[in-house]
Design a protein that fits this description.
Elements (H helix, E strand, L loop, with lengths): L1 H16 L19 E5 L2 E3 L2 E4 L4 E7 L8 E6 L5 E2 L5 E3 L3 E11 L6 E9 L9 E9 L3 E9 L13 E5 L5 E4 L2 E5 L2 E11 L5 E8 L2 E2 L8 E5 L2 E9 L2 E3 L12 E2 L10 E6 L8 E7 L9 E7 L2 E6 L1 E2 L7 E7 L7 E6 L17 E2 L4 E9 L4 E6 L2
Parallel strand pairs: 3-9
Antiparallel strand pairs: 1-4, 2-3, 4-7, 5-6, 5-8, 8-9, 10-11, 11-15, 12-13, 12-16, 14-15, 16-17, 16-19, 18-19, 19-20, 21-22, 22-23, 23-27, 24-25, 24-28, 26-27, 28-30, 29-30, 30-31
């Protein structure tokens, strides 16, 4: 029945779509989803979040479809009440956080394909493209594994230099390492390095990377420090799962995932997987920024079933993490996702804080939705917005 309604709505939109033309000549950017990939232009894509300036056209489309594009129908929800059926719709956005999704249906039959992306619109005109922190994973021994992507185009003539790229840094007493892992971000080849450091590390980390005998040169990077004429070095601070060009202060942001940091809005929620030595006993820790739930006894309320909610008082954090509260949930019990709300007073669990800035926000239901997927047996998880 749902698909019939969608098709009727698509038919109605066909009458409108003839009034607007779209330019489909765009430069693709990959997303972390499986093929086909939801891609954007006019924005910078990092992980499952795209960043763009206000009032510029952002274009969306799918790449690596198994058939020609004219063998599918498209139903796009561009957020804000805007829907399109073009293969490559575009839209201008004002400041805010938006959730864009598409349903792709093969015309000759077959399963629908669903893809989505979070779009953050802010006034930042320059984004870091040379060094990107892909992930920061808490590991044994109170350490973090930082997965850092380094832009290969910062090395002149990179493609024609033989051998593997390398880095040399004071992460481990200026040890020299060859790097074999790569990834593609915004159609640019990145070299990937893994750095293991204590979670509470406060020391500046300095390093260079290159290929053959050529060093990277990236004065446009916020992590670049000039050391001489046409020479420089990268300097970063890696603390508690965060990467910054400046020392990370006493007030830290918990978790290694969730809402982006350093954007137009303070992160609403953060997430962290807590691994257990007991099989199938890993947990998801959800951190709530009390800025959005300012009250005497802030709480989180989990939806157990329709109109059946379980309010739980947040555990209030202090010290370096003042201003945050959290609750943990067994991942083994989250096969259908985690839907929740939060508010300022557990005694009145029907009054909620502002959740709309979160990339996990489900505006139609006034709640947040998380989907936890991955290879649970080996402790690899992906946490995305639950549609």
């Amino acid at each position: 029945m749902k698909k019939t309604i969608v098709l009727l709505f698509v038919a109605a939109l066909l009458l409108v779509s003839c009034m607007k033309e779209y330019d489909d000549n765009s430069v693709p950017t990959p997303t972390p989803n499986a093929a086909p990939f939801l891609k954007v232009s006019g924005a910078t894509l990092i992980g499952d979040t795209a960043y763009a300036a206000p009032n510029v056209f952002v274009k969306f489309w799918l790449d690596e479809l198994s058939m020609n594009v004219n063998q599918y129908s498209f139903f796009w929800d561009l957020d804000g009440g805007d829907y399109e059926i073009a293969a490559s719709p575009e839209k201008k956005y004002e400041l805010g956080i938006y959730n864009v999704s598409v349903v792709i249906s093969p015309l000759n039959g077959g399963d629908d394909i669903n893809r989505s992306i979070v779009l953050v619109i802010d006034n930042s005109s320059i984004y870091e493209t040379t060094l990107i922190l892909l992930s920061a994973t808490s590991i044994t021994g109170g350490n973090y594994d930082y997965k850092i992507a380094m832009r290969s185009t910062a090395i002149y003539n990179y493609a024609n230099i033989p051998g593997n790229p390398w880095d040399r840094g004071d992460f481990t007493a200026w040890e020299f390492n060859y790097l074999t892992e790569t990834t593609i971000i915004n159609d640019i080849l990145y070299v990937v390095d893994h750095v293991t450091l204590p979670a509470n590390n406060q020391e500046k980390q300095r390093f260079v990377y290159g290929k053959g005998g050529v060093y990277a040169y990236a004065p446009e990077s916020k992590y670049w420090v000039v050391t001489g004429i046409n020479e420089g070095i990268f300097e970063v601070y890696l603390t508690n799962g965060q990467m910054s060009p400046e020392p990370i202060g006493t007030i830290l942001i918990p978790g290694d995932g969730g809402d982006p940091t350093g954007g137009a809005f303070s992160p609403t929620i953060r997430t962290e997987v807590i691994y257990s030595s007991i099989p199938n006993s890993d947990s998801l820790c959800v951190y709530i920024n009390l800025e959005y739930a300012n009250g005497s006894t802030p709480f989180i309320s989990r939806m157990l079933s329709n109109n059946n909610w379980e309010p739980l008082a947040l555990i209030i954090m202090s010290g370096d993490y003042t201003g945050w509260g959290y609750q943990t949930f067994a991942i083994n019990n989250l096969s259908n996702g985690l839907y929740f709300r939060f508010g300022p007073n557990v005694v009145i669990p029907s009054v909620y804080g502002n959740m709309s800035n979160s990339k996990f926000y489900l505006s139609g239901d006034n709640m947040l939705g998380l989907q936890i997927s991955g290879l649970k047996l080996v402790g690899v998880y992906q946490i995305t917005r639950h549609n």
